[in-house]
Write a structure and sequence with these properties.
The chain has about 850 residues and is of the alpha+beta class. The chain has three domains: about 250 residues, PAS domain (Beta-Lactamase), CATH 3.30.450.20; about 230 residues, 2-Layer Sandwich (Beta-Lactamase), CATH 3.30.450.40; about 180 residues, Heat Shock Protein 90 (2-Layer Sandwich), CATH 3.30.565.10. The chain has 18 helices and 24 strands. The strands form five sheets. A six-stranded antiparallel beta sheet has the order 3-2-1-6-5-4, sandwiched between helices. A six-stranded antiparallel beta sheet has the order 14-13-12-17-16-15. It has a five-stranded antiparallel beta sheet with strand order 8-7-11-10-9. Helix 9 packs across helix 10, helix 10 runs antiparallel to helix 12 and helix 17 packs antiparallel against helix 18. The longest helix has about 70 residues. It is flat.
Length: about 850
């Protein structure tokens, strides 16, 4: 919607738009001024009315205050001195009554209905004045203090030595009791000593009648239908109210709390049912220490007369109409018509009529229109001159663009040729084929007579001719020190060199095949930021010299091919290193197999002889000798286990490990493994600290396996559990699953930290705990066991946490698989996996 209005506005003529803008601004300004004037006038009227109401309310409060103050003055100045002179200890109530009759005989207008005297511990008397009063008929009454509450209000006032107005308080001397307003003065003897208090009671009806008379006499502000007034005592209680019969006492209390916060006028809300705003007028009654509050609706304040508003609106409309006429005429004469002329002329100039001039009368004006006309005329003249110059420049630029296009096409063709030639070079990975293809493509690309490729040798001090135009020449593989010759200099300095007279070049190499070369160009070969060699090309003397374009193409070609050359070099180095490593590994494996075999035979003989000696086959042995022989046998057996493990590793790496897999009874293997475990428990003296338990499922079928190797795996896992469990229990379980049998060894030993799990199946690797506790082992048992299990087509793995023990398990399939026919490479990977 807004966009549509804006578009329509800008489609209007300039004069109309200016008129609309001026008129709109004028209307807004005029309405704003009028509104502010009305608001200001209304506020002034309201303020004046509020001030008048405030003065009236203060007048009522002062008049009511003076009327009420007559009561304490009468008590203090007349009654109290007379009673003080009359009083003697033990005086009777009739004597006080006679004294009071004598004092009040001349008083005709008395507001109170009763006077009471309280002397603590001695007297409580009440004197009632009939209404209408008869001076000779004042009722005197003596009150029994025991019939009154111990915390009666007058006892509290007397104890606190207070005086003044109080109430509403409970009337304790009448039946039925009600609320009264009372004023208290001290009762002192002639010497000024305090005897008690004297107070006068004013009924609420008397106080209300006094308020009505005061409001009527003062022209009170509460005479409206909605307004009401009330008085608040110094203790915050409502003492009397006017025109507030329909108001709840709690509402009056709330209003008093709001009004008492400040003296004067306070805005309040939530008072009247029509939700109109209201205000409260608070006036202080200084003598009684009360506050007189009047609440009025805002409708009580005067509003601006309707006729005044209508007159202001009429005057504004007439002024606005006159403004529209004057502005429209002025805009059309001084802005719209000259602007239309300038716009029409500018449109003609924009259409190409550069000879059309701006009217002279517009250019001679001294205002902004004249300035615009002169500027537009200057612009027309400049455009005319520029147009003539531009035509000449267009012709020149068209010719230059054509030359640049032709040059760009030539460069693109050359770059495309370099790219195509480089693709044929980098597609191979054999170094010599790459170099020969590189040479042939350069000959064709640059139309040269010679090309040679020199590569930096591994000693980083020489360059070698590895490929050139004549591959069968005896100069192939010629070596030149780095920094000598054209190729050595370019390789060292890593910059291209062009030579127009190569025959007189100081570092020319006297090669037979390039004796006729007179023009030479050599660029470095860069790979990964390093110089790996140089490419040299040459032309005969009658050929054109090399230029920067030739250098650029050769440099680009060399940079594209250099990474492929370097990769091919690395492949050659990698193949050589791999072959050397294979040869060294084969020698190591043969040596290891030979040594372990030669060691095992005599070691078996030593163990057997030691065993015969221990059992007394060669003569009696004492206890100490038997212990020594046991230690020697255990050490020899440990060495034999190490040799057997080394022999197994050598067989695996050499691809000579043979497994004889056939269906076999698993219970026979389990019996041997458990017997071995019992022997290890006895030898290690662990019966007292470690409990070994086995749980084997019954009815297991024959399993395709190499029984000796499976027994070796079980022995490795059980022996590890016994060695690494210093105290606790070991559980060996065997159970059948759908297609396999699972073997598990769980211990409560020292456990394996998580950061050492990856090292566990690496050959010759042992955990830090095993080294710190000096637990014997070679680090070969688990790698060999994993190989043997996987060679059966099973899986070996574990779960362990430091301090929580370990669980090692492996599985064997119930059906023979192809996993038992691993290749030599696969076997080596199982043992030496990282």
């Amino acid at each position: 919607m807004f966009k549509t209005i804006t578009k329509r506005f800008y489609n209007q003529p300039l004069a109309r738009r200016l008129s609309l803008i001026v008129v709109t601004i004028s209307i807004i300004t005029l309405l704003g001024v009028t509104y502010l004037s009305l608001i200001s006038t209304t506020l002034s009227l309201r303020q004046a009315a509020q001030n008048t109401l405030n003065r009236q309310n203060s007048g009522i409060a002062n008049q009511l205050d003076r009327q009420l103050q007559r009561v304490p003055l009468l008590l203090r100045d007349t009654i109290q001195p007379k009673l003080a002179r009359t009083y003697t200890p033990g005086i009777e109530v009739p004597a006080l009554r006679n004294a009071m009759l004598e004092v009040l005989s001349d008083e005709t207008d008395i507001l109170f209905q009763r006077i009471s005297v309280y002397i603590p511990g001695e007297l409580i008397a009440s004197f009632i004045f009939p209404n209408p009063r008869d001076a000779t008929d004042i009722l005197a009454r003596s009150i029994d203090s025991t019939s009154l509450p111990a915390d009666a209000w007058f006892t509290t006032v007397n104890d606190a030595a207070q005086s003044g107005w109080f109430g509403p308080v409970t009337d304790l001397f009448s039946t039925p009791s009600g609320d009264i307003i009372t004023v208290v003065v001290p009762f002192n003897d002639p010497a000024g000593r305090r005897l008690g208090i004297i107070w006068a009671d004013v009924s609420p009806s008397t106080l209300l009648q006094l308020l009505r008379e005061t409001v009527a006499n003062e022209g009170g502000v509460s005479t409206t239908d909605d307004g009401f007034s009330f008085a608040v005592g110094r203790d915050g209680q409502i003492t009397t109210s006017y025109n507030a019969r329909r108001r709840d006492p709690t509402e009056l209390t709330r209003l008093s709390e709001i009004a008492l916060q400040t003296e004067g006028i306070t805005d309040i809300d939530g008072v009247f049912q029509d939700q109109q705003n209201a205000f409260a007028i608070n006036s202080i009654m200084t003598e009684t220490d009360w506050q007189f509050i009047t609440v009025l609706p805002d409708s009580a304040l005067p509003e601006l007369p309707y006729q005044t508003v209508l007159q202001i609106a009429l005057i504004s409309a007439i002024g606005l109409l006159a403004l529209v006429v004057v502005v429209n005429r002025f805009v059309y004469t001084n802005v719209a018509r000259p602007a239309f002329t300038l716009s029409n002329t500018a449109e003609k100039i924009g259409g190409g009529e550069l000879t059309r001039k701006i009217p002279l009368e517009l250019r001679e004006q001294g205002d902004e229109i004249g300035t615009m006309a002169r500027t537009l005329e200057d612009m027309r003249r400049n455009l005319e001159a520029l147009y003539n110059t531009l035509e000449q420049r267009v012709v020149e630029r068209t010719h230059e663009l054509e030359l640049a296009r032709q040059e760009a096409q030539e460069n693109a063709g050359e770059l495309r040729a370099v790219y195509d030639e480089s693709l044929s070079v980098v597609s191979d990975y054999q170094l010599q084929l790459i170099l020969q293809t590189f040479v042939q493509r350069i000959l064709r690309l640059l139309k040269v007579d010679y090309c040679g490729v020199w590569l930096l040798r591994s000693n980083q001090e020489e360059v070698r001719l590895v490929a050139h135009t004549y591959p069968d020449d005896a100069m192939t593989n010629m070596v030149v020190p780095l920094g000598e010759g054209l190729s050595g200099t370019v390789t060292k300095e890593r910059r291209a060199i062009m030579v127009d007279q190569y025959s007189s070049f100081p570092q020319r190499l006297n090669l037979p095949n390039i004796a006729s070369i007179e023009r030479a160009l050599c660029v470095p070969m860069i790979s990964s930021g390093d110089s790996i060699g140089a490419v040299m090309v040459g032309r005969l003397a009658e050929a054109a010299v090399f230029n920067e374009n030739d250098q650029r193409l050769l440099t680009l070609f060399a940079n594209l091919v250099s990474p492929a050359v370097r990769n091919a070099q690395l492949f050659v180095q990698l193949d050589d290193a791999r072959a050397s490593a294979d040869r060294a590994n084969q020698v190591k494996t043969r040596f290891l197999a030979s040594v372990t075999h030669e060691l095992r035979t005599p070691l078996n003989l030593i163990i057997n002889n030691l065993d015969f000696m221990r059992i007394g086959a060669f003569g009696d042995v004492n206890e100490e000798q038997e212990q020594r022989l046991d230690q020697t046998i255990r050490s020899s057996e440990h060495l034999l286990y190490l040799i057997n493990d080394l022999l197994d590793v050598s067989k695996i790496e050499a691809g000579e490990m043979q497994l004889f897999i056939q269906p076999a009874d698993i219970y026979t293997v389990l019996t041997d493994a458990l017997d071995t475990a019992e022997m290890m428990m006895d030898k290690g003296n662990k019966r007292a600290q470690v409990t070994f338990t086995s749980q084997v499922e019954e009815g297991l079928p024959p399993i395709p396996m190499d029984a000796r190797r499976v027994r070796q795996v079980m022995y490795n896992l059980i022996s590890n559990a016994i060695k690494f469990t210093l105290k606790g229990d070991i559980l060996f379980t065997v159970k059948r699953e759908p297609d396999l049998v699972r073997f598990s060894v769980r211990d409560s030993g020292i456990g394996i930290p998580e950061d050492q799990h990856d090292r566990l199946f690496q050959a010759f690797e042992r955990t830090d705990n095993a080294k710190q506790l000096a637990i014997e082992g070679t680090g070969l048992g688990l790698p060999i066991s994993r190989y043997l299990v996987e060679a059966h087509g099973g899986e070996l793995n574990f779960h362990s946490e430091a301090g929580e023990g370990s669980t090692f398990w492996f599985t064997l399939p119930l059906q023979a698989t192809q996993a038992s026919s691993l290749t030599t490479t696969q076997m080596m990977r199982v043992v030496s996996r990282d």
